Amino acid sequence: MSADDDSAEFSRSRSDSAGAQRGGGRSGRGVWRSTDHAPGSPVAGAGLSSSEAETTGPDGSPPRGTGKRRRRSAMAESSESPEPSGTPDSSAARSPGRTGRRRQQEERPPGVPQSPEASARDVVYRLLAVRARSRAELRQALLRKEIDEDVADAVLQKFVDAGLVDDAEFAEAWVSERQRNQGLSRKALGYELRRKGVEEHLVAEALSTVDTDAEQERARELVRRKLRSLTVDDPEKRLRRLVGMLARKGYPEGMAFRVVKDELDRSDLEAGADDAEAP
């Protein structure tokens, strides 16, 4: 072999060696194959299959980006795999705090109408959330909702047994609140309770908490408050308006006239005393 041939062979050998080194430095950027190695170096991926050798770097580690692709593939497989039959669905995994009417509505299959008993309970709960009511009031409300009488009576009896509907407590609270805030007489209070279907003996027990002296004192308070805003100067007109105001609140005529007369006399005396003290 001539010197020129030796020189050309040496140049090709150096070029091949440099190319192999450049390819080996780009770990993970391309597919590393078992045939791409520098002369005299151990073969990367030796003892592996062709597919494993192609996804293995020169140092035996996976190329860059391979882990992400594997994670994406695993996620796709898990999303496509069917749910085990023993796994509860989302509708069954409810928080333990959801009870009562809300849970019953959730458990009822769509398209299935609510039972009459459940509808009646919903109506009663809504009405009691606004204010206390007598049993007769609640029954009338259920019948207006076209609830069967037997169903309405059965549902209301459960509320009575649970202490949520009590006509005695309702009547007592009604008398106390209306007499204090509205100034109603015992006669007017009894009329309201009877309209609400409260039994007579319960009405009498509730009205017994308001005695005659307390009723008369409440009438005096009403007259005094009305006098402060009354602008009529004629004594007869003032008398008629004040007596009529008490009569509309259910006070007996005799008591109303007596209370108004006393309060007008007291008001005139106070006005005369003020005039006498004026310079």
Explain how this protein is built:
It is found in: Cytoplasm. Modulates RecA activity. Keywords: Cytoplasm. The chain contains 13 helices and no strands. It has helices at 3-25, 50-54, 66-80, 101-107, 116-130, 135-144, 149-161, 167-181, 186-195, 200-207, 212-229, 235-248, 253-277. Among the domains are: 116-165; 166-210; 211-270. The protein is an all-alpha fold. Helix 5 crosses helix 7, helix 8 (167-181) packs across helix 9 and helix 12 crosses helix 13. Helices cover 64% and strands 0% of the residues. Residues 23-55 and 81-98 have low confidence and may be disordered. The termini are far apart.
Give the gist of this structure.
The chain has 279 residues and is mostly helical.
Defining traits:
elongated; 279 residues; 13 helices
How many DSSP H or I helices? Answer: 13
Q: Per DSSP, what share of the residues sits in E-state strands of 2 or more residues?
A: under 5%
- Tell me the distance between the termini: 151 Å
Element-by-element helix/strand order = HHHHHHHHHHHHH
> Regions with pLDDT < 50 over 5+ consecutive residues?
23-55, 81-98
Write down the Rg: 48 Å
Taken from the alpha-carbon principal axes, the silhouette is: elongated
| Largest beta-sheet details | none
**What is the helix content?**
55-70%
Question: Helix/strand/pairing class, anyone?
Answer: mainly alpha
The total strand number stands at: 0
Quick check: average pLDDT? 74
Main location: cytoplasm
Domain RecX second three-helical: 166-207
Domain RecX first three-helical: 120-158
GO biological process, one term: regulation of DNA repair
